[in-house]
Amino acid sequence: MNAVKLFVLPVLATAMMMTGCANRKPAANVDATQNPSTASTVNTDGLSEDAALNAQNLAGASSKGVTAANKAFLAKRVVHFDYDSTELSNEDLQTLQAHAQFLVANANSRVALTGHTDERGTREYNMALGERRAKAVESFLVTSGVSANQLEAVSYGKEMPINAGHDENAWKENRRVEINYEAVPPLLK
User: Fold this and answer.
1) Where is each OmpA-like domain found (predicted)?
2) How many domains does the chain have?
3) Do residues 121 and 96 make contact, with C-beta atoms less than 8 angstroms apart?
4) Which tens digits make up the pLDDT trace of 51-96?
């Protein structure tokens, strides 16, 4: 009986973690020709109610908390990691500090932090590593004053590579956390 529990519990935990990721729907695309601060309608056909609401929220971008000094860092929405690491680089800390400043100034902003890994390792290990990376970014932002209610950490592990290659350059690109604004993104114009 104990052997069954030892097998079933990790399997259930992994299934629960993966279910949360599988149900995530991306926000709708906002027409880039529209001015986000004046756009009143966004095409939300085929989206769930939550995703449609997120798409509408994206149309209300904010310039509050955007400065000339942090604009370039706010434009960067990806931080990268070394192999099997959750350590943030100095360059990434500057990027995250700019996002923290914006999020503190815009309490209605919401961000999904999606953790990714390269293709090496098991699916389970990479799901956990992707989560640790997303949580490392989340922890830095919360420590910088961002409300935890504005953040959601999600892991995709090795399931969504940005580069399909099988070499160090591809792996380096795939070891990342993406900063995805789901409500009130920075207006960088």
Assistant:
1) 68-185
2) 1
3) no
4) 555 555 555 688 887 888 889 999 999 999 999 999 999 989 999 9
Does any domain span residue 118?
Answer: yes
Whole-model pTM? 0.70
- 11-34 pLDDT, tens digit each: 444 444 444 444 444 443 433 333
End-to-end CA distance of the chain: give it in Å, rounded. 62
Reading the block at residue 170, the tokens are: 């591809």
Tokens of 80: 């990268």
Residue 113: which domain range?
50-183
Nearest CA among 117, 104, 90, 122 for reference residue 177: 117
> What is the per-residue DSSP string for 154-182?
EEEETSS-S----SHHHHHHHSEEEEEEE
